[in-house]
Design goal:
Layout (H helix, E strand, L loop, with lengths): L1 H11 L37 H9 L7 H11 L4 E4 L6 H15 L5 E4 L3 H14 L7 E4 L5 H8 L5 E4 L1 H9 L10 E4 L2 H6 L3 H10 L5 E6 L4 H10 L4 E4 L9 E7 L5 H9 L7 E4 L3 H13 L4 E4 L5 H12 L5 E4 L14 E4 L6 H8 L9 E7 L1
Parallel strand pairs: 1-6, 1-7, 2-4, 2-5, 3-4, 5-6, 8-13, 9-11, 9-12, 10-11, 12-13
């Protein structure tokens, strides 16, 4: 049954003609030869407010990343954008900075940011708060897993930007609490992931309720035909910006762990006891399986947290914060956590269950080997 499901999921991905090959799981890390990126702009060059420039500086941004360097200016000019960029390239700031400036100078402008997961929505809101310190620009976070009534209360107050997941947007719109025709700027972030998660009809519904006269920004790691078709139905003369990096960083050491009939949980525990397994992200297929694994690891004394769809938002955020802050050193997750999250210093990614597609594999192991540090990705196979 797994093989059948695997083929189905793989065929929905961007590499439709390929079947995943276990040889993909094995590759030595390579020494990274740094190419010096020289941006065309400094943040001080952009026509944005002095307060925003100060907040950018205080956040520790010294010069734009490639996607920021290419995207901020055309967004400031009001152009529609197709931005192709990997997670961790700074694309959140690439759209937040110009849109914050836009609403700062014109309060009739309202922004809707649509993302696939609650965690990514929270992360974007945190960046928004940092960029808008002392600027009287306000956001509302609208996601599942928490009370809708507080969100309704916040929507009734003055706000400039809504950061939300598709399902919660539909719920609020149908209740008459989120009037989409008022939002004349839209950002669709991680569009490929939203398509993978089955949000295509929700996206079309949201777009159909927006005003025709709007600015639309579209960000994705990949642009298969299905996504390209969607983009061109709602974008007007878009500027396409591609700053995609290599799919898998050279700094990730990849290998397989052959279980050979042993109990997988025992094999995992042996690994976690080894030196150097300091901050480990473990991926599995099912919520039930990951709950079972969590109980086993906790019973054996490991400092562990879990994140998956059955957890409410407070529980998911608490688990993420514990992992980020070092209170636990093992985070168990389903693929809900593999996109968009920015977690520093992950030493190992372990695919306890094989991913459903090569795209999922890329996004899972992309959590390690960041910021020029070497990371390790291990995949359990029979």
């Amino acid at each position: 049954m797994y093989k059948k499901q695997f083929r189905s999921n793989w065929q929905r991905g961007t590499n439709k003609s390929k079947k995943i090959n276990r040889s993909f799981y094995i590759k030595k890390a390579e020494e990274r030869v740094e190419k010096t990126f020289i941006p065309k702009h400094n943040f001080s060059d952009f026509l944005i407010s002095d307060e925003l420039k100060q907040n950018i500086l205080e956040k520790g941004y010294t010069m734009p990343t490639p996607i920021q360097d290419e995207a901020i200016e055309p967004i400031l000019l009001g152009k529609d954008i197709i931005g192709l960029a990997n997670t961790g390239t700074g694309k959140t700031a690439a759209f937040l900075i110009p849109l914050i400036n836009k609403v700062l100078y014109n309060r009739s402008q309202k922004v809707l940011v649509v993302v696939p997961t609650r965690e990514l929505a929270v992360q974007i809101q945190e960046e928004f708060i940092a960029f808008t310190k002392n600027m009287n620009v306000y956001s509302v976070l609208c996601i599942g897993g928490v009370s809708i009534y507080k969100q309704i209360h916040n929507l009734r107050r003055d706000h400039d930007i809504v950061i939300a997941t598709p399902g919660r947007i539909k719920d609020l719109e149908k209740q008459g609490q989120l009037k989409l025709f008022k939002y004349n700027n839209i950002v669709l972030d991680e569009v490929d992931r939203m398509m993978d998660m089955g949000f295509i009809n929700d996206i079309k519904f949201i777009i159909s309720r927006l005003p025709q006269n709007r600015q639309s920004l579209f960000f994705s790691a990949t642009l298969p035909h299905s996504i390209s078709g969607l983009a061109h139905t709602f974008l007007k003369n878009p500027v396409t910006i591609s700053v995609k990096l290599q799919e898998i960083p050279l700094t990730v050491e990849q290998d397989v762990i052959r279980v050979n009939g042993r109990v997988k949980a025992d094999v995992l525990c042996e690994l976690l006891l080894r030196q150097g397994f300091d901050k480990v992200l473990v991926f599995g297929r099912t919520k039930w399986g990951m709950n079972k694994l969590f109980a086993i690891l906790e019973r054996r004394g490991f400092k562990v947290a879990a994140i998956h769809g059955n957890k409410n938002q407070a529980q998911r955020q608490r688990a993420l914060n514990q992992f980020k802050d070092g209170l636990v050193n093992v985070l168990i997750a389903t693929d809900v956590a593999s996109r968009g999250l920015d977690i520093d210093d992950v030493t190992h990614v372990i695919n306890y269950d094989e991913p459903a597609s090569y795209d999922d594999y890329i996004h899972r192991i992309g959590r390690t080997g960041r910021a020029n540090k070497t990371g390790t990705a291990l995949t359990f196979v029979d």
